[in-house]
Amino acid sequence: MRPHALAYPLLSTRMSDYLQLTKPRLNLLVVFTTGVGYWLGVAGHVDPARLFHAVVGTALVAGGSAAFNQLYEQDVDALMSRTRLRPLPDGRLTPWRAFIFGLVLSALGLVQLSFGVNHLSAIVAFATLLSYVVWYTPMKRRSSLSTVVGAIPGALPPVIGWAAATGTLSREAWLLFAIVFLWQMPHFLSLAWLFREEYERAGFQVLPVVEPTGRSTARQTVIYTAALIPVSLGPALTGLAGPVYFAVALVLGIAFLVLALRFSRDLHRRTARQLFLGSLVYLPLIWLFMIATRVP
Fold first, then answer.
1. Which residues of the chain have pLDDT under 70?
2. What is the torsional sign of CA 175, 160, 18, 74?
3. What pLDDT, on a 0 to 100 scale, did the predictor assign at position 14?
4. What is the pLDDT of residue 107?
């Protein structure tokens, strides 16, 4: 077989490894929520070039953050079945390559946001990068509060989109932040319950590991989900979205709360999975109806 015939699958594999460093499935949500924030900010009057720079720049920063996260956690990733085949613990990429890759992606994304959109969106993206890599990632091994801390960078992408569209951080931006922040708590707590044995083996101090009975997990899940209902109605009450959105958000919020209550009463893998899957349905529907009923 000719040497160049072997080069293509090797190149393809290496590109796939670098792509895995960016956590593409997770960062699809980042890209989507950034686009939502931008769309809501411009009220549908989209500048395609500006939207492109906002979304791609944020995606690059998010990908760089994910690479730094995997670099820091390569030792514990090797201990969990769902992460042990990632490029770093499996030895397919060296730590130095991952570091350079994360640095280049992050820098390119920040430059693209700063000069292709505006400086404010780049500043918010930089705050997202720092809080995720420097604050949240090391804290996962030290405290169950890391879930709350991690929800901060997770909730900033729509703020980046809003800043890209308006050049401001108005109350609407922080309302979008609050919706995603509160949504993340039942989303991640249900996931942590599903994988609590693996998290314990890896040394992650998530709440289901710190408090194995699940009482605190159940209580916090219900509290955050209940708090999400009035906050999710905020866009309609502040004029960001219309009355149809209000009705849909109320119904979806109650349904989400029902799933959280079921989980709290019966801490089982089945109810945790139902809550997790429900969270995956809830947020896209909230965004879609908010976009569809956006008040000019």
1. 1-12
2. negative
3. 76
4. 97
Q: Which residues on neighbouring strands pair with residue 291, listed in sequence order?
A: none
Residues 20 and 163 in one domain: yes
Which of 187-217 are b and which e, b meaning 16 or more Cβ less than 10 Å from the residue's Cβ?
bbbbbbbbbbebbeebebbbbbbeeeebeeb
Q: Which two tokens stand for residue 86?
A: 């990632």
Same domain, 114 and 196: no
Please report the DSSP string for 79-117 in residue order. TSTTTTTSTTTTTSS-HHHHHHHHHHHHHHHHHHHHHHT
60 and 102 both lie in a single domain: yes
Sequence-distant (6+) residues with CB within 8 A of 219 are 264
The predicted pLDDT at position 7 comes to 42
Residues in Cβ contact with 234 at an 8 Å cutoff, skipping those fewer than 6 apart: 175, 178, 179, 240
Dihedral in degrees, nearest 10, Cα atoms 262, 267, 268, 270? 30
Say whether both 29 and 154 belong to one domain: yes
Pick from 91, 153, 160, 98: nearest CA to 128:
153
Q: Degrees (nearest 5) of the Cα angle 33, 134, 218? A: 65
Tokens of 124: 């918010």
State pTM to two decimals: 0.91
Structure tokens at 40: 């809501």
State which residues form the domain around 198: 171-296
* Residue 64 in tokens: 């760089």
Distance CA 204, CA 159 (A): 29
